[in-house]
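Worked example 4.2. Below are the chains of a multi-component assembly; read each line carefully before continuing.
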Amino acid sequence: GESVGLHLPTLSVQEGDNSIINCAYSNSASDYFIWYKQESGKGPQFIIDIRSNMDKRQGQRVTVLLNKTVKHLSLQIAATQPGDSAVYFCAGNRKNNDMRFGAGTRLTVKP
Amino acid sequence: DGGITQSPKYLFRKEGQNVTLSCEQNLNHDAMYWYRQDPGQGLRLIYYSQIVNDFQKGDIAEGYSVSREKKESFPLTVTSAQKNPTAFYLCASSTYYNEQFFGPGTRLTVL
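Applying the procedure described above to all two chains together yields the following structure tokens:
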């Protein structure tokens, strides 16, 4: 079946360093991907998305890379700040508009 | 002030009782979704609705029911048939094939 998963459950980085969070997906029918940030006890917040006709997209301090050949996407956060500490989910959409979420990576930023 | 709201924030249920979680959006989105999140886990899709008066089962629909009588509202009922209902429930909405916007969540605890 289709799945969207994360390579690592936790990631710890030093404040000011860059963070890279990885995600793999299994179903090549997924053609729209989203990264969400979820703080404790709150709903996920949209960070950035990418469609399968792109391999890179940049936002403010964040970049998403999509490698369709190996079915992998990553989220890069530049100059990581304490406020970036949260759980990050990748999600893959499908043409019937439902979505599959990975288990998440908990990012901890050390001062 | 547009957004998606869920109520209540915390809900306690005795075993054998049905409870209904509210989800309302004023974003004019056609699609709405319900997810369940267990500690340290990703989001699992319970039900989704692409349009008023229509909805589809997600991956874990057993023990849950929904209705979509209005575009703005998508209530979820957790029935007594759901054997392990304690979880964090998230509602989301979206336009077709775009990012989902999430509500703040309802934490349900069975006493």
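Take a moment to check your reading of the output against the notes. The CA atoms of residues 19 and 56 of chain B lie 20 Å apart. The interface with chain A takes residues 31, 33, 35, 40-45, 48, 50, 56, 58, 90, 92, 94, 96-97, 99-105, 107 of chain B (CB under 8 Å).
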